[in-house]
Structure prediction request, 450 residues.
Amino acid sequence: MLQVTVEKQWGAFSLNKSWQVRCGEIIGLFGPSGSGKTATLKCIAGLLKPDAGAIVLNGKALYHSAQGICLSPQARQVGYVPQDYALFPHLTVFDNISFGIRRSCSREEKALVVASLLKKAGLENKKHSYPRELSGGQKQRVALLRAMAGEPRVLLLDEPLTSVDLYWRHTLRREIREFLHDLNIPVVLVTHDFNDVDVLCDTLAMYGSPHKEQLPPHQAGATFYLAGLRR
Amino acid sequence: MDWFPVILSLRVAACATVLSLVAGVPLAWLLSRSRIPGKPLLSSLTALPMVLPPTVLGYYLLVILGRQGFIGRLLLERFGLSLVFTWQAAVIAAAVVVLPLMVRSVQAAMDAVDPELEEVARTLGKREIAVFFRITLPLAWPGLLAGTVLSFARAMGEFGATLMVAGNIPGKTQTLSIAIYDAVQSGNNNLANSLVILISALTLAVLVVLNKLTGLKRW
Prediction:
């Protein structure tokens, strides 16, 4: 279970959100750009410090303003996949994924971990490729595998499908859904795509709207419909 | 022809380049990545040797390294060393002169590294030192290489500050550019000509290598 309450103010912009997501579930942070979705992810990852609030993962505080707790990003054990994937351009697919392994283990063990992850994603033949040689969908999968290699306790995905062309997006969406549900950790997914919400998300937090609370997707759908936003 | 000035210049340039790397890379990182107070001042200070007259730089170095200077006296009393008018003083002078080139070059390369890559590395549990050596530095590598080559080329030709602190002692501190000055002063035009051609060719070769390395056509 991941419980998030964040308050942050910068310039004319203010973020004040509260939501939670259970293990094995996917929450969608849905809203227009500039509504603080990515900022929320960065707060959970420890890359940005909220002004106030609490971020509690499985009963353990990653951040708690009242208790004065703010763990470093290194100590949080989150899997963070930014919007453009941020693959390390100077490392091969193999080294990118291997970079994510936290446990100190031998070269052989690391190779085994990476090999099994690559096999799962059907990317064994791309092992020695560099990120610039990959398609959007392949990059996305490598970024996900790199995050997985760190055995994260929560997974943060920032618009994971925007760099994938429309043709593949539909297939990938189903794949990701199955993959994520198998992990049995909370997954936070930033999106502004209705289809992502329909297919991927179990629950939804609305950004940039008057809705303070989170909603189940079908209710959110009704809200879009009423607002004349749907498709 | 006496090859001593050529060999000395190469040695001084190599040592000065290493010294400016050791000081310049951390400085470039501080300027590019840290949030220390007084960054504009630090930035200006590192650029100063590029615009100050070499004689002024040399004078500062004399004041610091000389027998009466803070570091000079310490070295003399503790270790019995005197730096002024040695080839090591020429190394220090050249290192100070090329430091701005090194810092600018490395800092520009580090500024071009996407901070998001470093952020992801941190979320993957890597400490700052690992982030620097495995992400920032390898990605800034072309700038580091360019800075190194450029600094070497500039150090080869260093004259003013070197003359002030190392003097003009043939066979001891007389570098290539000082030997040229000396030859012209004493009317030995033949020697001056061959030394000038030599240093021009050497510097040109270095810049050709630099162009190859960076793919830039600026020089």
